Amino acid sequence: MISIYTQVEQGKAWIAKYRGSLPVFACVLGFTETALIPGISAAGLTPEDRKYTACADAEFLYYGAEHQPQYSLPPLTAGASPVLISRAVVEALQIPVYLFNAGLPQFPAVPAIDLGGLPARCLSTGKAMDLATVQHLLEQGLIWGDRLAAEVPQSYVILSECVVGGTTTALAVLTALGIDAIGKVNSSHPICNHQQKWEIVQAGLQKIPPHSHPLEIVAAVGDPMQVVVAGMAIAASRRCGVILAGGTQMLAVYALTTAISQAPNLFWQPTEVIVGTTRWVIEDSSGGTVDLALSLDQSSKNQGIVPPLLSTQLSFANSLYPQLQVYEQGFVKEGVGAGAACITAHLYQNWPQSQLLAAIEDQFQRLSQFKI
Fold first, then answer.
1. Which of residues 75 and 251 earns the better pLDDT score?
2. pTM of the predicted model, to two decimals?
3. N or C: which end of the chain has fewer CB within 10 A?
């Protein structure tokens, strides 16, 4: 139920080391005004819906289907939120969940840890965040990565995200780091809107000087989640395993982590870190996730480091619900650590496809009944 696509031996060693271990699950919530561009994302039907996607996903992840939410899961172009997948696993396995507000337009209605960040401006401005904010968020990431690792010294930390528009900021950061990511990133759309993304990214990159420091790059064209998770990965990898939970966005975080770890006080243990996602991301014919992972060593800052890229083989082809079946058509694909949650279910209790699907469908059924 787990496939390894890059750095196979390192991936196998990671799996062998952490099989049977219960992790902690962290989700870093952030926002970029890039998400308000019409058509940029399918993670919310309208730009107004997309303002609240992270808050809604956080509530469902933390409380589950029977909770009366302040922010309901937003309507999507098609399908259902990937948080249903993550919630199914963390509920069944009783995985501790930590939520972090890295920079949202409004505070989520959950016990989230406020990191003192701000929502990012649209990356096309070339001034997404102030450098001081980025530096502060990195420090917070380092502090909390160490704290999370202390909870599971013999296990691993799942570092997930919820940032609408985040694959576009990922493309911007990857490109600015010198990595050829054009045409390789994914999207919540069934066919990735590469041209739209690239035009926005070009507008932002034209406004920043060449050879900028990695933190200056994030400040110019990134989002608040990226540098927080990079800091968490650096600190946590010194003490335990790490799954960067996602596709394009976490490959960008991995590249950023590698770039900023050149500083003397920011050493990390890359052999403890994998990227974990879903089969739908890997098999997206309009993206190139495996090629993107292999491209991460192109940057002079990255010293030839390529992460092990893993995915769950979860399928919704035989699901009872059309909202889940559309994942097989390329809608949604990933988010809120869905792929990594499934990888954990396989590793911790050896869940087969049938058990995983049943748990997710149970979440969907409960949510549907509660809404009615």
1. 251
2. 0.98
3. C
